[in-house]
Design brief:
The protein is mainly α. The chain has a domain at about 65-175. The protein has 7 helices and no strands. It has helices at about 1-20, 25-45, 50-120, 125-135, 135-145, 150-155, 160-175. It starts with a helix and ends with a helix.
């Protein structure tokens, strides 16, 4: 019973705080006294079984809420662990992709180096024919690394459209 009265006092004081009006100490004490008297009257009119029943109902609701919160917490933990696993999988995939890209870059660089040595030793017409059918970006990388005089001869011997396109890309790379 004392606990119930203390609870009522707390609720009353909280409701007084929540209201927008600012009370003086005397007004607050008067309002508190009136509110406590009202609650005491209500409690006097109720039987002990009614009060016990209300307390049990509230306790049951609190238990239900607690169970719901526990299940939500478990779901959050499961979701969190699943998310962490997916992040790890994505990181692993990212490393694989980066490894493949690096490998492709190394392979392309090696291919360009080999082709530079091959094209440097070719006659200009054969080099023009080879570079005309090669991928444009690789052709540009090759032309960039060979002697400029030989590159100009190769450009002159290529088909005019291919030569113009490659020269434009070559000049854009130089910038």
């Amino acid at each position: 019973m004392k606990a119930l009265i203390k609870l009522c006092l707390c609720l009353i004081s909280l409701s007084a705080i929540a209201s927008e009006k600012i009370y003086t100490k005397e007004e607050f004490e008067q309002k508190l006294k009136e509110s406590v008297e009202k609650k005491v009257l209500v409690l006097k009119n109720k039987t002990l079984t009614q009060l016990t029943k209300e307390i049990l109902e509230k306790e049951s609701k609190l238990d239900t809420r607690e169970e719901i919160l526990k299940s939500r917490e478990e779901q959050i933990k499961i979701s969190e662990s699943t998310l962490l696993k997916k992040i790890e999988e994505l990181e692993s995939e990212k490393k694989k992709i980066i490894g493949c890209i690096d490998n492709n870059d190394r392979t392309e660089a090696m291919r360009v180096t080999q082709l530079v040595s091959v094209v440097s030793n070719m006659k200009p017409q054969k080099a023009a024919d080879l570079l005309s059918v090669q991928e444009a970006n690789i052709s540009i990388k090759i032309i960039e690394k060979i002697d400029p005089q030989k590159a100009s001869k190769i450009f002159n011997l290529m088909d005019k459209e291919v030569s113009a396109r490659l020269q434009k890309q070559y000049l854009n790379m130089q910038k």
